[in-house]
User: Which sequence fits this backbone?
């Protein structure tokens, strides 16, 4: 289990961004091809879910970084958790900026 948590701590931010990007494209394509009017709330929910997932990955990375023990792999674990925190923050910003675009650009233009 600790290995899965560490993998999530490092790759959770990029995974959240990928989910956000793919779902946003899918929802916009669906809305433009079927004249669906619920695109705004659906994109907001997708963005909120992705932001929470990326923030959770950052929190997990931070907590694991704080709890790194003094075993032989301390330097590697510390580095990976620092990378996880930075990736979570970077992709959190990318998700927020990507979620703001539909507010100023028409969906089906």
Assistant:
């Amino acid at each position: 289990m600790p290995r899965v948590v560490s993998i999530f701590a490092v790759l959770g931010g990029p995974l959240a961004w990928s989910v956000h990007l793919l779902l946003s494209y899918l929802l916009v394509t669906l809305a433009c091809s079927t004249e669906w009017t619920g695109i705004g709330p659906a994109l907001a929910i997708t963005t909120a879910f992705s932001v929470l997932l990326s923030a959770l990955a950052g929190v997990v990375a931070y907590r694991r970084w704080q709890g790194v023990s003094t075993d032989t792999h301390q330097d590697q674990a510390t580095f990976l958790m620092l990378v996880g925190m930075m990736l979570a923050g970077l992709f959190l910003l990318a998700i927020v900026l990507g979620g703001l675009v539909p507010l100023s650009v028409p969906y089906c233009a």
